[in-house]
Amino acid sequence: MGPAADKSSVVSGELKVHGLQNLRVIDASVMTSMPSANTYSSTMVIAERGSDMIRGKAAPAPVALPG
User: Fold this and answer.
1) Contact between residue 50 and residue 15 where contact means Cβ atoms under 8 Å apart
2) Fewest CB within a 10 Å sphere: which of 16, 30, 35, 64?
3) What pLDDT does residue 65 have?
4) Distance in angstroms (rounded) separating the CA atoms of residues 67 and 64
């Protein structure tokens, strides 16, 4: 995942495949490095965010945590 100028990146930050129209990759393969924890959670976040991008839904506002 990265800018089109980076030859090692295949998808943009919007999960769109560089050089192709109307194609997104929304799965664990877009992770630039494998997390040391379970990949299920990370994959679900990518899927939820990809779904929001397709539907045109804005990202939720940040929430301040107490403490």
Assistant:
1) yes
2) 64
3) 92
4) 9
Say if CB 14 and CB 25 are below 8 A apart.
no
Residue type at position 5? A
Q: Which amino acid makes up residue 63? A: V
- The model's pLDDT over 14-64, given as tens digits with 9 standing for 90+, comes to 999 999 999 999 999 888 887 788 889 889 999 999 999 999 998 888 999
Angle, CA 49 vertex, CA 47 and CA 50 arms, to 5°: 65
* 3-state SS string for 8-63: CCCECCCCEECCCCCCECCCHHHCCCCCCCCHHHHHHHHHHHHHHHHHCCCCCCCC
